[in-house]
Write a structure and sequence with these properties.
By secondary structure, the protein is an alpha/beta fold. The chain is about 40% helix and about 20% strand.
């Protein structure tokens, strides 16, 4: 076995151990909840079993909440954040390794966030992951790279929209990372795609389904639509 293969196996084992420990810790509160329930309810009467659906639902909420908290705290406390740049996509590269760790911990949580409408808790979780978020901002879409994403105040990110800050080049074996910055009072329509390096200035509106291409700058107060996104100029009124 060559050195590169050994490095790949070692990196994979490290990731697997980290994921195992973090997600296992996230289940401790629901296990404790179940133990407390068994102290008070022995499930030896018929009506006890009618409580089960409610207890299961509470258990799911506890699990989701603590999985978010623990995975977010681990990423925050250990400062697992990657930086802009172009890196070798392998376990040997420090930034790529951090990206893989965050993906392993964050991707399951991201899927959960798409299912459960947990409001402000979602923004707090993103902040734990290093994302800068202003006040009164609604994030309905998907943030692929929170630590490289900045969103201002009074913004609306529509459902099924996606903000990317990374691009894989499998042919070259690299991953490039560029931050995305979104200003204040921005509206991003449902299903829009924001690619790495994009800057969206204040008071911009992006139509549903638009694709904002890599490193594009959307000017203040303008409206954009299409693939790729282009400015929509206001029609002059005919008197």
């Amino acid at each position: 076995m060559n050195k590169k293969s050994k490095g790949q196996i070692t990196g994979f084992l490290k990731i697997s151990i980290i994921v195992f420990i973090v997600f296992s810790l996230g289940f401790f509160p629901v296990v404790l909840f179940g133990r407390i329930i068994l102290i008070f309810i022995q499930f030896n009467q018929l009506w006890h079993f009618f409580l089960l659906p409610f207890l299961i639902y509470i258990g799911i909420i506890i699990t989701v909440y603590y999985q978010l908290i623990i995975s977010g705290l681990v990423i925050h406390l250990f400062n697992i954040k990657y930086k802009p740049g172009v890196y070798e996509y392998s376990f040997r590269d420090k930034n790529s390794m951090k990206w893989i760790i965050i993906c392993s911990l964050y991707t399951p949580m991201r899927k959960i966030l798409e299912i459960f409408p947990i409001g402000e808790m979602k923004n707090r979780y993103y902040r734990l992951l290093g994302m800068k978020t202003g006040e009164n901002t609604l994030i309905g879409g998907t943030i692929m790279d929170p630590c490289l994403t900045e969103i201002g105040s009074n913004c609306t990110i529509g459902l099924y929209s996606v903000i990317y800050c990374h691009i894989h080049d499998y042919e070259k074996g690299t991953i490039s990372m560029d931050p995305v910055k979104i200003g204040n009072n921005v509206v991003i329509g449902a299903g829009a795609y924001i690619m790495p390096g994009v800057v969206v200035e204040d008071n911009v509106k992006i139509a549903a389904g638009a694709v904002v291409t890599k490193s594009q700058i959307l000017k203040k107060g303008k409206t954009y639509a299409g693939i790729p996104a282009r400015e929509i100029k206001a029609k002059k009124k005919i008197r």
